[in-house]
């Protein structure tokens, strides 16, 4: 299978990008190259170079591939960037996957160091300008780009799409395993690559119910640590972040918090969709709002072109249920409605009709077809779930920001997993999922107050509709630690919902 892929890539580069002599009209050429990474490991790359623009050197963009995806991933976007803007673009397969050598180290030191090795190679072999360098990617490639921006001062700008900044927070939110995400990543890694010791040990811990043992590897692989944020800020790296509201692997809350810690040039774009769906077609070279901003970002901060992007509002949020971009000077944290939640008791361990949907599928349906993850509120069993109705909005409303819960809870079991869902509900009781969040509660019989941030959102509530909160104890997306038959008692609590 891998040999077939290599042959296909060679054929593609022969047909679409065989080296040609520079002509008066700007164009591009594509070659399939072997680049020595850390320790001499061979990284297979598609190198896209501009033609018809003189002898260079040319600004450089390095694009590591996503998890389980080969180097062909960015060729469409790379061709446009080379032809229209004069970049040398190196799109390479991350180590351990497909045609590249080595083993998967989960964005470990060797994988991150490969980004710098590719820069070295491109400066020497592809007529790239080592003083004008950017790094970009989707998912795994995006995480590498941020980590490399912290360690390599040559990277003037980074564009990270559908990425993580805190690996543990992404896959283990509030000490709850995102089971569907972990299973997808493990299956894809084994099908397309060669897992190294770190990934093998992480899977063993997960299978044995010891996921907390995986958490310590997160810090060195997360750009959101204090040390790496300080490095990025010290380097003055210009960082563009783009994620989807319903990203089932790397939810947007960690991205919004990371954005808030950056002090250099920055831009945050959150839009409808699931993991990698918002920017997928742009990577293939098709028209795409996210990739258009990526191109302008690099033009400004790698090439130095005064194109005005630095004067635009940096926080750009597209409502998850449709509408135009809402633009802010900072993360929205203004007006809010606070809803009092009265006390009640539920029995734990049973699923309800309320859940967070299926990763990759539910968010894609929301993003492409505006079909939300739904619920019929009258059919939510009040014996096993708490249901609270919030305010009605006669004229509608736009929610923007991070909804927050303050919950007073007393579990009867030592460990219970709660799942909180925020819905927009119409007059017939049909609800559309706005956002959600899991939280693990420990301490049998102990009354405690929990401050829980749901995932951030931008959502337009229709005129006459209301919001509602549902909390139950089982969700198919996650590993629940609830004990069937135990109880959870809610004391006086509150929900705060931010409005634009």
Automatic annotation (TrEMBL):
The keyword Heme does not apply. NCBIfam families: CocE_NonD (TIGR00976). GO terms for molecular function: carboxylic ester hydrolase activity; dipeptidyl-peptidase activity. Belongs to the AB hydrolase superfamily. Pfam families: Peptidase_S15, PepX_C. Residues 295-496 form the Xaa-Pro dipeptidyl-peptidase C-terminal domain. The keyword Transit peptide does not apply. This is Putative hydrolase, CocE/NonD family. The lineage of its organism: Bacteria, Bacillati, Actinomycetota, Actinomycetes, Pseudonocardiales. Residues 1-24 form the signal peptide. It comes from the Bacteria. Keywords: Hydrolase, Signal.
């Amino acid at each position: 299978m891998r040999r077939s892929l290599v042959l296909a890539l060679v054929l593609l580069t022969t047909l679409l990008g065989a080296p040609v002599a520079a002509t008066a009209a700007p164009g591009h050429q594509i070659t399939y190259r072997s680049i020595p990474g850390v320790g001499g490991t061979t990284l297979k790359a598609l190198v896209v170079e501009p033609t018809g623009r003189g002898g260079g050197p040319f600004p450089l963009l390095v694009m590591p591939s996503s998890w389980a995806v080969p180097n062909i991933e960015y060729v469409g976007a790379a061709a446009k960037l080379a032809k229209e803007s004069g970049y040398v673009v190196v799109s390479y397969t991350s180590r351990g996957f497909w045609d590249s050598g080595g083993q998967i180290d989960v964005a470990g030191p060797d994988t991150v160091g490969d980004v710098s090795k590719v820069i070295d190679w491109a400066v020497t072999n592809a007529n790239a300008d080592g003083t004008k360098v950017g790094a970009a990617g989707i998912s795994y490639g995006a995480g590498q780009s941020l980590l490399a921006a912290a360690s390599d001062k040559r990277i003037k700008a980074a564009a990270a799409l559908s990425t993580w900044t805190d690996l543990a927070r992404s896959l283990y939110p509030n000490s709850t395993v995102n089971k569907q995400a972990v299973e997808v990543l493990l299956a894809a890694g084994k099908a397309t690559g060669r897992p190294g010791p770190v990934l093998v040990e992480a899977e063993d811990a997960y299978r044995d119910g010891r996921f907390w043992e995986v958490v310590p590897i997160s810090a060195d692989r997360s750009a959101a640590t204090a040390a790496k944020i300080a490095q990025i800020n010290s380097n003055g790296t210009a960082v563009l972040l783009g994620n989807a509201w319903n990203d089932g692997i790397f939810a947007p809350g960690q991205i919004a918090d990371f954005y808030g810690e950056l002090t250099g040039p920055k831009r945050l774009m959150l839009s409808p969709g699931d993991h990698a769906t918002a920017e997928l077609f742009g990577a293939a070279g098709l028209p795409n709002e996210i990739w258009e901003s990526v191109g302008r970002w690099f033009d400004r901060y790698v090439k130095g072109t005064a194109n005005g992007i630095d004067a635009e509002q940096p926080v750009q949020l597209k409502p998850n249920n449709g509408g135009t971009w809402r633009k802010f000077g900072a993360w929205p944290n203004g007006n809010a409605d606070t809803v009092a939640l009265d006390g009640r008791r539920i029995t734990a361990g049973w699923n309800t009709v309320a859940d967070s949907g299926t990763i990759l599928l539910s968010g894609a349906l929301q993003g492409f077809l505006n079909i939300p993850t739904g619920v019929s509120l009258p059919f939510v069993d009040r014996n096993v779930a708490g249901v609270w109705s919030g305010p009605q909005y006669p004229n509608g409303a736009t929610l923007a920001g991070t909804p927050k819960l303050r919950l007073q809870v007393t579990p009867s079991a030592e460990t219970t997993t709660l799942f909180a869902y925020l819905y927009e509900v119409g007059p017939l009781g049909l609800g559309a999922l706005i956002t959600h969040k899991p939280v693990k509660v420990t301490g049998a019989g102990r009354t405690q107050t929990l401050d829980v941030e749901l995932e951030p959102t931008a959502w337009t509530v229709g005129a006459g509709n209301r919001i509602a909160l549902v909390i139950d104890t089982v969700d198919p997306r996650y590993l629940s630690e609830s004990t069937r038959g135990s109880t959870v008692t809610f004391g006086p609590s509150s929900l705060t919902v931010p409005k634009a």
